[in-house]
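Question: Hello, beginner here. Any chance you could explain the protein record under this note? Any guidance would be welcome.
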Amino acid sequence: MPGCRVNCLSMHLRNVPFIPGFNYLVSAMIIHMKSPSTNAEEWLLIELQGEVISRHAESLAGKLVGELHFSSQGEPIFIIGHHVLFGKLLTMEKPFVVTKKQQMGDSVEHHVVAIIHRKLLFKTRPKATIVSLGKKQ
């Protein structure tokens, strides 16, 4: 299945207590995709264990983060720099709503842009795509 480039529309970091007294840092990105086979548009949530940090102390919103591919079995493969992550495509128990805030004089309106029904979950450690060749002699 062909891949796509992933631009980060927004990023949210939160500490999630799975075990009392111990926190995991979870990164979540919202992406907008178009399926190459059906040309249908879909918004997905990408959930990562850990955090994605920009080399240049700036926000990742609107920046290219990596490339997303799918295996022949439909499993997502996310390549970020020299790291590759293997994940699962899951249907969310409760969908997320993507809204756009619009100022209308003295009032504020929130318009629904999309509803996210599925997420890509990457819960394992990334694998390095470059292997050390050892010391030069």
